[in-house]
Amino acid sequence: MRRSLLFFGIISLIWSCEDVIDVETQPEAPRLVVDAVIRVDTTQQFIEARVTVTESSDFFSENQPTQLDENATIFFGEPDPNSLVVEPLGCASLAETAPGTGIYEIDPDVFPCGRLPMELARPGMVFRLLMRHKGRTYYAITPYVSTVPIDDLQLGDQTLFDEDETEVQVTFTDVENQEDFYVFDFGFGEFLAVEDQFFDGQQFEFSYFYDQTFESGQELEISILGADQPFFNYMDLLVEQTLDDGGVFETPVATVRGNVFDITGLDNVDIFDNVERPNDFALGYFAVVQEYKETIVIE
Amino acid sequence: MPNKTFPLSLILFLISLTTYAQQKYTLSGVISEASSNEKLIGVTVAVPELRTGTTTNEYGFYSITLPEGDYEILVSYLGFSDITQQIELNTNRKINFNMVEQAEELDEVIVSEDAERTNIRQPQMSVNTIAVQTIKQIPVVLGEADVIKSLILLPGVTNAGEASSGFNVRGGAADQNLILLDEAIIFNSSHLFGFFSVFNPDAIKDVKLFKGGIPSRYGGRVSSVLEIFQKEGNSKELKVNGGIGAVASRLLVEGPIIKDRTAFLAGGRASYAHLFLPLFDIDNRAYFYDLNTKINHRINERNSIYLSGYFGRDLFSINDNFVNIYGNAVGNFRWNHLFSDKLFSNLSLIYSDYFYGLELDFVGFEWDSGIQNFNVKYDLKHYVNDKFQINYGLNNIYYVFNPGKIKPNSPDSGIVEEQLTKKYANENAIYIDVEQDVTDKLSINYGIRASQFNRLGQDEFFVYQNDNPVIFDPFTLTYQEATPIDTINPGRSGTLEKYFNIEPRLSASYTFNENTSVKASVTRLAQYLHLLSNTSSPTPLDVWTPSGPYVEPQLLNQYAVGFFKNLRQGEFSLELESFYKDIENRIDYIDGANLIANNAIEQVILNGEARAYGLELLLRKNEGQLTGWLAYTLSRSEQRTPGRTPTFDNGRSNLETGINFGEWYSTPFDKTHDIALYGNYELNEKWSFNTNFIYQTGQPTNFPVGQFEFQELVVPFFGLRNQQRLPDYHRLDISAKLVPKKNRNRKLQSEWVFSIYNVYNRMNAASINFRQNQDTGRNEAIRTSIFGIVPAITYNFKF
What we know:
The complex is a heterodimer of chains A (299) and B (799).
Chain A: E1 17-21, E2 32-40, E3 50-55, E4 64-65, E5 72-77, E6 90-96, E7 103-106, E8 126-133, E9 136-145, E10 150-156, E11 166-173, E12 181-185, E13 191-195, E14 203-210, E15 219-227, H1 229-242, E16 261-262, E17 283-297
Parallel strand pairs in A: 2-17, 9-17
Antiparallel strand pairs in A: 2-3, 3-4, 3-7, 5-6, 5-8, 6-7, 8-9, 9-16, 10-11, 11-14, 12-13, 12-15, 15-17
Chain B: H1 5-18, E1 24-33, E2 44-47, E3 52-55, E4 61-67, E5 69-76, E6 83-89, E7 93-94, E8 97-99, H2 113-121, E9 127-130, H3 132-137, H4 147-151, E10 157-158, E11 168-169, E12 177-181, E13 184-185, E14 190-191, E15 196-197, E16 204-210, E17 224-230, E18 239-244, E19 248-258, E20 262-271, E21 284-298, E22 303-318, E23 322-338, E24 343-360, E25 365-385, E26 388-408, E27 418-419, E28 423-437, E29 442-456, E30 461-463, E31 470-473, E32 478-481, E33 486-488, E34 495-513, E35 516-527, E36 529-532, E37 543-546, E38 554-567, E39 572-589, E40 605-621, E41 626-640, E42 648-649, E43 652-653, E44 665-666, E45 673-682, E46 687-696, E47 700-701, E48 706-710, E49 713-717, E50 724-725, E51 729-738, E52 749-757, E53 767-772, E54 779-785, E55 790-798
Parallel strand pairs in B: 1-7, 1-8, 12-17
Antiparallel strand pairs in B: 1-4, 2-3, 2-5, 5-6, 9-16, 10-11, 12-13, 14-15, 16-17, 18-19, 18-55, 19-20, 20-21, 21-22, 22-23, 23-24, 24-25, 25-26, 26-27, 26-28, 28-29, 29-34, 30-33, 31-32, 34-35, 35-38, 36-37, 38-39, 39-40, 40-41, 41-44, 41-45, 42-43, 45-46, 46-51, 47-50, 48-49, 51-52, 52-55, 53-54
């Protein structure tokens, strides 16, 4: 439960020497990748949902978009604490926006589903994603998680390791007496997962260092996303896995398992046990989280 | 405090054992180096007529009990001139020997046959001694002589490469090595991420590594014992020696306070600040220093006391944004007391403190952690007769673990001050160990150690549903941290968990003739402390945690057999050993475990198991202008963490897959082939040359089985653990030592050491990482190497 701050992955053995080399990897067969982080802007009337599906590739190739066998469906409902089964209150159907893109968005006209009204963005609401791909059935379940706004963004002039860095100071206020998790999206595929263990209830400022400099006038968009612990763990592990540090705090690599599972033919869907077939799963994550966005302009 | 009735009752028992023998007398004394009174460890005192003998202990004391008669006593020690003395043993005699170092003339460098013969006869196996002189000769990076790097040249000892601290013995982890400096436990043996070790070679007298067949006087670590004794100090005259090297300079002063009775030693070593500054252009500091101090006082023939201290610190900082400080501090009082000329005792009172701190300015975070221990040891050695020695003693260690104090580093930091719950434990042990020559050919060494670990209460302790701090999600097949259902306050006086282990030890040697023997040993050991480290090398994150309700002690069984032979009258010696060991309760971490400032470490740990087996060969050339050795090890080291026993809860099965699906996987220290070659060539009085070559199978690692894109992140993903290996590690180092001629007729003795590390500039991979090139957007594999070819010059002096 209590994880610590994770700012440590960035120390590298800077007196060492690095070369690009050829390595023979032993790639596995492509897997379905589901990118389904639904960012909820509570000022809108509806929750916009977009799900991207691709297939994984070997490390040195690019992922290719793929198509689902039929529309994906998001069900929502509030679970009864006394029952394992969630009775869906309603659903939304997601159709591919243009053939071949692998991008699925809500089609409000598919009976019996509709849109996702904003009142669903409340604590206790649970969303489930169901999709079929190449004859297999995939399923994910996630709660709605809210978050707090960013209080302030400032440009800093410090650097961490070398000159070609840009410091951004982020300030936000944690909610007191509850355990909170946050995921920051700094753009450019840069994320940071943060928990409040050491600053519970405080206004907290930290510095983030982009490993690049920007031209004057460029706008940086920074988001704070809500997260429950599994989503925090997932993003934390992803970030760790993508850091190229080779450094002294490096942790062993792992298969980053998300929350999208292959339930094809599973006769125990109620308890979701697939211990017997550990290799059947999809990559990626399904989350429905509140987002606040702020921008800052490079001087 | 010592209980006199305990040894006395044993003496009575042993006397009853030996009364049938004829009239016997005891020859005992202390053997020292003539010019400094430095006591010598492991000197052979042989009685050729009776084909028997003994060796001096860690405090230079020997005792041998023989039938009445006239004998020729031969005292010999590597690098020293033999002493032969006729004695008439018709009463108990006390004879102290002073040994003279052999002149550096080549023809005289002859290893005594008898010194080697004891090696053949003693049941003690799997032990390696490296002379400090050899350590100083082995070429190392940047010319800084190094104990740990020298050990890597021995069979069965490896490390993870240049920038890794610690060392791995017979496929064990670095935290499984008991490192003793003057009997005090050292928790981290490395400076600067493992580039250097904490032992100043100038201050060291003796280095001994037990890889197996560990005597029962040692306990608490399952892999090996590295026992290092510091010099006592010259009680005859003031001596200074030092050196100026490429990274550090050192100075050691020793001399008498009261001539022949009281001596001091003070040594310091410091690296130059901004050590790595020339290599890159950002503001950083990296340096270390250490201090060794010692005072010894001989009260009388029967009593000596020693006071010694060690203090070392490392500092590493980048832009003051990241500051890391760590180090050991050790204070130690010892009292040698001779109850009789047959019963030697040593009482040690040791305080040791290990500090590890991090400051991260960019999040306003400061974290200080550490471990303190108070250690009382009382060891007795009872030299019953020339065929029978009995060692026994007791030991108590009280530990305070500070997992960390988190502090804001400035008033405007949002970090809330928090003291992570301190942990307390007490470890005690008693042991008895017998060295017995059963027949002329068969010697055995048997003992037993009873150890108890008491995990004491603490201020806050988490309680979990079903006592289970790690839950398994049967759908994602991942382990997750459980949420505590309650926090209790057991108080410091109570006990959270108690472990008791009986650790039998047995080793035997059978001597076919003076030059050939076989040996076998069985060892059981318990280890109650665990180093939390999920990096592949142990520094700089160094947090120790005690066994307790959720973390069980590591239990080792090791079996070893060996064949030992001297060839060509001891010109060559051959040691061949094979071992198998298994360890219960080796901790493993769940994927994504975070160990820094974690207040509930039990939530990310599972108990697994480990095993290792292998074959070691050591061929030494002991004589002549060319000396050295070839070491080869073929071994395997694996661990696994299967799913825990399923429990049934609401009719749901809680089957678990375990870590890595419960399959055995190579540990990071699994090196299939490990070859080390070391040679020393004395050309003439002026020049000598040294070389070593190391080859190790590449370290197990993981390469991605694929990649996926998620939220603009390009994520490599991995299959089962440690399926691939880094490229093989190998390198060749050479050095030349010049002793100028003008040394002859003056007090100042100087020497120059020229060395080249990694002569053929092999770019050994410290790691291979997979990332996206920021400029091209293409994925790449990046090899990180630490040192290419490194030349260095060191100047050493003494006067």
